[in-house]
Amino acid sequence: MGLRELKRERTRRLIADKAFELFTDHGFGRTTVEQIAAAAEVGPSTLYRYFPTKETLVLEFVEDCLMDAVGWFRGQPVVIALPDGLQSVIERVLERLESNPQRVRAVFDLAGQTASVSAHLNELIWRFRNDLTDELVRRLSGPPRQRAEAGLDRQRVGIGPDPQQVEFTAALSAGIAMNIIETVVRIWVENPDDTEVKVLARRAMSLLRSGGIPLPAAGPQLPGPLPSSPARSDADGGRNNSPYGL
User: Fold this and answer.
1) For the chain, what percent of residues have pLDDT higher than 90?
2) Where is this region: Disordered (predicted)?
């Protein structure tokens, strides 16, 4: 990263930090963009170049945590075993969130109090799921040799050559990963002194893999094609229905 990029990143961090100080002291609704800009010693136009809305100021830290993990996964060799890759994605998100517990709790509080923050957070979570789904599709759709090197047997896990089946499976995997993150973070926020996020995440993953968590019964196989692009369904406007999204 060059000097210009470092300066931009420092400015971005400073603006976000000052915004959270003001949100904590005065509330989200009572804090203006002009007040945040003055506290960070930048002009409002500069602030808007970094953060187009107040909501994006709230979510800057969470967005960095999520997108960093997806970016890391994209950069891994295609031969990485997908279960190991997903575990690393989950733990990478949680480790970064755990590094700033006050910011995470503030995000939860603001999302619970402010509908616009909750809506923007839900959109961010869906973007993470969609990006993770896309990367899983890329890996699941690779040539047979690549899949074999990654320890992936599509027949064993019930994935046929149909692209819709591949995307359906990828979307389910991404959804499970996000749900593990959501559950662990909620428990951690509510019980900060009694929870180690990595231990709890690994317990969740172990229970899922061992069948220790009740799952819906499959019932008899029904005819008909799989839906297309389940992670991008327009039925819910592309939003998560969770009140916090995390």
Assistant:
1) 50
2) 214-246
